């Protein structure tokens, strides 16, 4: 089919780009989409550091050998510019750092966590919090925030950092899911709900109308609840972005995941840095005043300069909120961790982001895209503004 032909052609471009060292972002289809353009990042003449220099710089910036963590960057995965990139099966850093700690949920009968947990017992909701065994479940539920998965559990893409089930043709979505979800969430003891999903490239609009209907029904059932939708790039279909942006949601979230250089190693070939930025930009244009949000994983070989440039690109399209978290390998079949980024570095990026004008920056090793800190701030910000 034409769709398959376009996909295989796109995949070939990515393979050629990977072999040549040139980063390409795939063209978007026309008709409410981003114009077809290729973007190429030119290589610069940089002398590659020696192994000793690389290790010395790493030990200085990351504190190699510190209690519970450290470890050198992966060998043999440095490009001609001396930049590291992630790889499946590569050597992992030695041990998990000592700073990977989160407070245990309160088991007190009168705690908010217990209230939220108990209210789920009789509801048919698939919470990402429980199914993904998220380490922040205690903090989020104690703050009245929950995350719900829509459109099934099977993704049409195969990103190298994600362990979700994949298939070219997942089962069709339940047409009654928006009604059942709205009814259940309205009864659940949360004030802020995050609706998210896998990528559904097999659906014409990527599931945008499914999301929009869920938001509309939920707002009708419980007008005071705040709704964030963490969605795919809809293959760059701006009509789908607009459908969701105008549905009545409070926060439009889409994750760029990593810096531009690493996109082709980390994400599915159908995703792209500029495609992701285009959806965040259009959401704001479609509904002025709508809050936009994105998330970036660290520990994949990115440089500080690349992270800062990503923040600049996000601010150029007026993204309001950004979160930074440590990438953790889900299985041995996924990308290895290049390094465990120290808490001080996360604090640095938080400060830089705030100075750039982001309304909120959540940054820390255990922060995830639906992390409670962002919701706490956004709830206050939305209600006061």
Structure write-up:
The protein is of the alpha/beta class and 385 residues long. Helices cover 36% and strands 12% of the residues. The chain has a 7-stranded parallel sheet with strand order 3-6-7-8-9-10-11, sandwiched between helices. Strands 1-2 form a two-stranded antiparallel sheet. Strand 6, helix 7 (208-221) and strand 7 (226-230) form a beta-alpha-beta unit.
Describe the structure in brief.
This protein has helices spanning 2-20, 51-62, 112-119, 128-131, 137-142, 177-187, 208-221, 238-245, 263-266, 273-286, 304-316, 343-356, 372-384, and strands at residues 23-25, 39-41, 145-150, 154-155, 165-166, 192-197, 226-230, 251-253, 291-298, 321-326, 360-363.
């Amino acid at each position: 089919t034409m769709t398959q032909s376009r996909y295989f052609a796109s995949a070939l471009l990515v393979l050629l780009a990977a072999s040549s060292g040139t980063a390409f972002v795939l063209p978007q289809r026309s008709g409410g989409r981003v114009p077809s353009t290729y973007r190429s990042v030119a290589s610069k003449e940089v002398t590659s550091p020696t192994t000793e220099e690389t290790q010395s710089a790493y030990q200085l910036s990351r504190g190699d050998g510190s209690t519970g963590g450290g470890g050198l960057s992966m060998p043999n995965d440095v490009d001609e510019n001396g930049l590291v990139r992630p790889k499946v099966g590569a050597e992992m850093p030695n041990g998990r750092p000592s700073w990977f700690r989160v407070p245990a949920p309160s088991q007190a009968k009168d705690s908010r966590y217990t209230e939220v947990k108990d209210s789920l017992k009789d509801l048919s909701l698939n919470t990402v919090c429980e199914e993904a065994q998220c380490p922040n479940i205690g903090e989020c539920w104690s703050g009245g925030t929950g995350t719900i998965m829509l459109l099934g559990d099977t993704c049409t893409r195969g990103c190298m950092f994600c362990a979700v089930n994949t298939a070219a043709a997942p089962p069709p979505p339940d047409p009654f899911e928006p009604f059942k979800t709205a009814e259940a969430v309205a009864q659940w003891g949360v004030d802020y709900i995050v609706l998210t999903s896998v990528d559904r490239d097999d659906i014409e609009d990527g599931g945008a109308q499914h999301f929009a209907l869920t938001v509309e029904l939920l707002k009708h059932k419980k007008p005071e609840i705040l709704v964030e939708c963490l969605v795919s790039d809809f293959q760059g279909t701006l009509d789908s972005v607009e459908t969701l942006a105008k549905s009545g949601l409070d926060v439009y979230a889409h994750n760029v995941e990593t810096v531009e250089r690493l996109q082709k190693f980390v994400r599915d070939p159908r995703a792209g840095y500029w495609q992701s930025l285009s959806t965040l930009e259009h959401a704001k244009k479609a509904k002025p005043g709508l809050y936009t949000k994105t998330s970036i994983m660290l520990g994949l070989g990115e440089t500080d300069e690349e992270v800062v440039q990503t923040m600049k690109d996000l601010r150029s399209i007026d993204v309001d909120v950004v979160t930074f978290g440590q990438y953790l390998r889900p299985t041995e079949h996924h990308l290895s961790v290049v390094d465990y980024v120290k808490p001080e570095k996360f604090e640095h990026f938080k400060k830089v982001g705030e100075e750039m004008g982001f309304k909120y920056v959540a940054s820390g090793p255990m922060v995830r895209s639906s992390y409670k800190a962002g919701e706490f701030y956004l709830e206050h910000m939305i209600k006061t503004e």
